[in-house]
Amino acid sequence: MGETQPIKSSSANELKAPINFNEQDLSLAARINALSGENLNLCLQCRMCRNGCHFSSAMDYQPHAIFRLLQYGQYKQAMECSTLWLCVACNTCSVQCPMGIDIPEIMDAVRLQALEEGAVVAEPNILEFHRTVMDSIERYGRTHKLEIMLRYKSRVRDWFSDIDVGLKLMSKRKLDLRPSRVKDSKEVKRLFNQAWRG
Ligand code: SF4
Ligand code: SF4
């Protein structure tokens, strides 16, 4: 060991760079397992998760490749990939996983760890979108789509790239002007404080 060794894959976008055995973070998998309550070492690389994922063509690493990177302690590649931010936690992959791994739980844990450790966020606009949606839920207990759009656009300073979609939604009256609130907004606030800040 000691030298960088390529791991062959059948598809170009599975592992972009060779596994670097000189730069392994051997505690990475254990940290993610502890955070997610799952065991990523059970992954046997059958690739069923990749076949079921509707977003895999947009990802830089396929879901099973993330598991491989984590198993090999490839911190930078795993923590700084766009896949983390494109996964929408739909669970389609998990229901096909023969090992019963909750894949979105692992993705969540890697996202959290990446943020906590200051890793480069591959899709900063998606992170801003996450934040904007969560702010809305914290405020109202529900999403207020018009406000989310306006706040998000202002955060990323991009007003016009998809204005046609916004106008279409407005013309079809899909965007309420006023937010709708849940009755017990204090309880929502308490949950946020407990889960995020407590
Ligand atoms: S949970 Fe994520 S990785 Fe799994 S199928 Fe959905 S988008 Fe793909
Ligand atoms: S389906 Fe499960 S076992 Fe198969 S590659 Fe994906 S995570 Fe690993």
Task: Describe the fold and architecture.
The chain has 198 residues and is mostly helical. The protein folds into two domains: 4-116, Fumarate Reductase Iron-sulfur Protein, Chain B, domain 2; 126-189, no CATH class. It has eleven helices and no strands. The protein has helices at residues 28-36, 48-52, 63-71, 75-79, 83-86, 92-96, 103-116, 124-140, 145-156, 163-171, 185-197. Helix 1 (28-36) crosses helix 7 and helix 8 packs across helix 11 (185-197). The longest helix is centred in the middle third of the chain and has 17 residues, at 124-140. It is globular. The protein starts with 27 loop residues before the first helix and ends with a helix. Mean pLDDT is 87; it is low at 1-13. One iron/sulfur cluster binds at residues 52-53, 55, 63, 87-93, 103-104, 107.
Low-confidence stretches: 1-13
Report the portion of residues in β strands: under 5%
As for the CATH topology of the largest domain, it is Fumarate Reductase Iron-sulfur Protein, Chain B, domain 2
How far from one another are the termini?
43 Å
Assign the CATH architecture of the largest domain: Orthogonal Bundle
Shape: globular
Briefly, what CATH class of the largest domain?
Mainly Alpha
Mean pLDDT: 87
Number of strands: 0
How is the main sheet built? Answer: none
Count of DSSP H/I helices = 11
Q: Can you write the helix and strand succession as a string?
A: HHHHHHHHHHH
